[in-house]
Design a protein that fits this description.
With 528 residues, the protein is α+β, with helices and mostly antiparallel strands. The chain has four domains: 127 residues, HPT domain (Four Helix Bundle (Hemerythrin (Met), subunit A), Up-down Bundle), CATH 1.20.120; 54 residues; 182 residues, Heat Shock Protein 90; 124 residues, Roll (SH3 type barrels), CATH 2.30.30.40. It has 18 helices and 18 strands. The strands form four sheets. A five-stranded mixed β-barrel has the order 8-9-18-17-16. Strands 2-4-5-7-6 form a five-stranded mixed beta sheet. A four-stranded mixed beta sheet has the order 10-12-15-11, with no helix packed on it. The radius of gyration is 29 Å and the shape is globular.
């Protein structure tokens, strides 16, 4: 009997269970007496064991069986799990992942020693380890644990690109059809052509969405990496995500994966203090890393911020003196952005000792090169004892955002939903302050609609020109028709449209119609 097909299914299903296992273990680590969580963990490991037994993958089934025995005792409340016990379960999950990838074989003597050591620990009663494991250190895997690759799209990326290309060709063929007069085309045929074209445009829109990944899903792949890096450095760190709903091209995000791991490693090794240091400084004991994403015109803005001690200025000054022969006076005149860019030099390192986390001769230069390769830029800002911020600006070829879509004259326009404060009806809803009114009709040269009632969009901006004495001011736009809240696929504007400083991108709606995305921050003047 050929088991190839079933082993492939086992690999795919086990991968899902192990991803869930990591998430559940990180949750139960903060709530160790939660029997419901232990029941879920027990279920995931039991499923892996059952499939492994059916395929005679003895090493996997034996390890999974010993792990689930522990989980069952925790689930029943017979034993209170200690932190080192949960770490062993993490280690067991990592080893299961390796065994699944190698079809149940340990490919090196070191991995076999790891397997034997872990199995012997799991075969002991968990209460013996719950009071503190003072045995020998368990050997490490021959392949160090790294952040998992993005694997949410279950089809080949090349196939998605091929389908997109085919759909574009069909759309081009449709555009190349010769014009026919009303006499030459029957009403039924005209309706059929319109329906066919609409379906094609919708198909192209859906296919393009397959290239996109939400920033929240992208951030999730770093959760375990940050947890492990923090544990290795005896620190407590949590990851907070802002802008998780924004979607971007999966190819771009995949190329950011390794650079981001390196930034996180530096935040934890050099920036975030130990719990004791943080408490003495009046901070929360748990360090915080913020991963934030936003779209600004045709750019994706990503910020990585830690609330640690800040970049070591004395290390930079020492480097500038020793490596560039600069004096104190010359260093004092260096602009802040250029000063912090020093850490991007290939030879720069602030690590005082070599550890698994830092000081191995791989500096921030590799991150800068990766960002530059993607056509992006990175700026660094740091405040002593407060934080460090890495702001990365990247060009985006494709993204999808939620917008309010409306008509002004014959123009179909959109504004990001997050910028719209309210939608009011009637001219009376306009503010008496003419400075807050922006007349899009005059800017676009659109005709009046002749109707008595209009809608008024009240919009918040993000730039300084929308604030007065530190207070946010709203801009008002009168529009003719509200089409609704739509998800639009945004592509960059061409060089000619960019010069108008009106549009942040060309938006394609699900039915294939075009809606220009207004660039709120760069609207020329404020005609009222």
């Amino acid at each position: 009997m050929d088991l190839t097909k079933y082993k492939k299914i086992f690999t795919q299903e086990s991968g899902k269970y192990l991803e869930d296992l990591d998430r559940l273990l990180m949750t139960v680590e903060k709530d160790r007496l939660n029997s419901d969580l232990w029941a879920e963990i027990h279920g995931k490991i039991h499923s892996i064991k059952g499939m492994a037994r059916a395929l005679s993958l003895d090493k996997i089934s034996e390890l999974a069986h010993s792990m689930e025995t522990w989980c069952k005792e925790f689930q029943q409340g017979a034993v209170e799990p200690a932190p080192n016990v949960i770490q062993l379960l993490f280690d067991g999950g990592d080893l299961l992942r390796l065994l699944v990838a190698t079809e149940g074989q340990t490919v090196s003597p070191q991995d076999q020693r790891r397997y034997t050591a872990l199995l012997s620990k799991f075969k002991e009663a968990p209460d013996k380890l719950a009071i503190g494991d003072k045995g020998e250190t368990t050997p490490t895997l021959s392949k160090p644990s790294v952040t998992e690759k993005i694997n949410y799209v279950r089809v080949k990326y090349a196939l998605i690109e091929e389908l997109l290309g085919l759909s574009q060709e069909i759309l081009l063929i449709e555009k190349g059809l010769p014009p026919l007069s009303q006499e030459q085309v029957s009403g039924g045929l005209k309706n059929w052509i319109d329906d066919y074209t609409s379906i094609l445009k919708g198909l192209h829109f859906r296919l393009a969405q397959l290239r996109l990944m939400s920033f929240g899903d992208f951030a999730d792949i770093f959760a375990k990496t940050i947890r492990n890096l923090a544990k290795e450095n005896n620190k407590e760190v949590r990851l907070d995500v802002v802008g998780s709903e924004l979607e971007a091209d999966i190819t771009l995000l995949e190329r950011l994966r390794e650079p981001f791991v390196h930034i996180f490693r530096n935040c934890i090794a050099h920036g975030i203090e130990s719990s004791d240091e943080r408490l003495k400084a009046g901070k929360d004991a748990i360090g915080r890393i913020i991963l934030e994403a936003a779209r600004e015109r045709d750019s994706l803005i990503i910020k990585i911020i830690d609330d640690g001690r800040g970049i070591n200025r004395s290390a930079i000054i020492k480097y500038l003196k020793n490596n560039r022969s600069l004096t104190d006076e010359q260093i004092a005149r260096i602009p802040e952005e250029e000063f912090f860019d020093t850490i991007l030099d290939p030879a720069f390192s602030s690590a005082s000792k070599i550890t698994e986390v830092a000081g191995r001769g791989i500096g921030m230069n590799v991150v800068a090169q990766a960002i530059e390769y993607l056509g992006g830029t990175m700026t660094i800002h740091s405040e002593p004892a407060k934080n460090t911020e890495f702001m990365i600006r990247l060009p985006v070829s494709l993204s999808i955002i939620d917008t309010i879509t409306f008509m002004v004259g014959d123009y179909t326009l959109s504004i990001p939903t997050s910028n719209v404060v309210s939608i009011d009806q009637g001219k009376d809803s306009l503010s008496d302050d003419s400075a807050s009114f922006y007349d899009l009709r005059r800017v676009l040269g659109a005709r009046e609609n002749g109707g008595e009632f209009i809608y008024v969009l009240k919009i918040r901006g993000l730039g300084e020109k929308y604030s007065h004495n530190g207070k946010e001011e709203l801009m008002e736009i009168a529009v003719d028709t509200i089409i609704g809240n739509n998800r639009i696929m945004v592509m960059p504007v061409g060089e000619l449209l960019a010069k108008a400083r009106l549009f942040a991108g060309v938006g394609i709606m699900e039915n294939g119609d075009i809606s220009m995305l207004l660039d709120i921050e760069s609207l020329p003047g404020r005609p009222g």
